[in-house]
Design brief:
about 20% strand; 9 helices; TIM Barrel; binds pyridoxal-5'-phosphate
């Protein structure tokens, strides 16, 4: 689908173009059409692309993939938003790395609502339990929540996960000093379920395949 066609379906939701494994030229092309937000999964690939595309002013990089604690030092201050903060320990490491680099970092808390073993993210109860600790960590600004529902579910089946994420965001927001942690964002919806996600209040949809076509396989 063309960028214009996609944008016309998003309403107020922001488009994050998921460019993982896609070549630089495709990012340049979309940028040329006006797209500014790009999402990457793999730290080294993301940093290489940032460098190669540093001539593009006001491009906005987001990290959406699994982040290992030992890579935290490479990412703080380098991304507009890190969507994949999946544990208290990772948040603590990010906060410390921000301290040593003298930067602040916007993050989302990734929640695993289906309790899938294979997926990263906080269980709902764990995020509620960790919330007081998360809020106290210096240098981090929690902008909201992110989820990645099971791929096998159809649109109507994923709807309750999206609704659940929104309800959880609302509940957490009530316990939050929103001058520090705005809690305004809901990053949810990919190429096959973004319409449902938008109906359930997504503020950021993460779209790859529908914009770029099939991804090359990872080597
Ligand atoms: C790859 C990826 C996407 C994009 O998926 P598409 O089906 O290509 O739209 C979105 N979110 C995350 C976390 C991803 O890893």
């Amino acid at each position: 689908m063309s960028l214009q066609q996609v944008l016309s379906q998003l309403g107020k939701a922001k488009l994050l173009a998921v460019s993982k494994l896609q070549p630089m030229e495709k990012i340049r092309d979309l940028y040329g059409q006006g797209q500014r937000r790009f999402g990457e999964n793999y730290v080294q690939e993301a940093l290489d692309k940032q460098e190669a595309l540093s001539d593009l002013p006001d491009i906005e990089w987001h990290l959406i993939g699994h982040l290992q604690k030992n890579k935290a030092k490479y990412v703080v201050g380098k991304f507009h938003l890190i969507h994949s903060v999946e544990s208290l320990e990772l948040a603590q490491v990010l906060s410390r790395q921000c301290d040593s680099k003298g930067v602040q970092q916007n993050i989302l808390i990734q929640v695993n609502l289906a309790h899938e073993e294979t997926k990263n993210g906080f269980d709902k109860n764990d995020v509620l339990a960790a919330w007081p600790e998360l809020m106290k960590l210096p240098n981090l600004h929690i902008m909201g929540l992110m989820t990645m529902p099971p791929l096998t579910e159809t649109g109507s089946e994923v709807r309750h996960y999206f609704a659940e994420l929104r309800a959880l965001r609302d509940e957490l927001k009530r316990q939050t000093d929103t001058t520090v942690h705005p809690m305004t964002e809901l990053s949810m919806g990919t190429s096959h379920d973004y319409q449902v996600a938008i109906e359930e209040g997504a503020t950021i949809v993460r779209l790859g395949t529908i914009l770029f076509g099939e991804r090359p396989v990872r080597r």
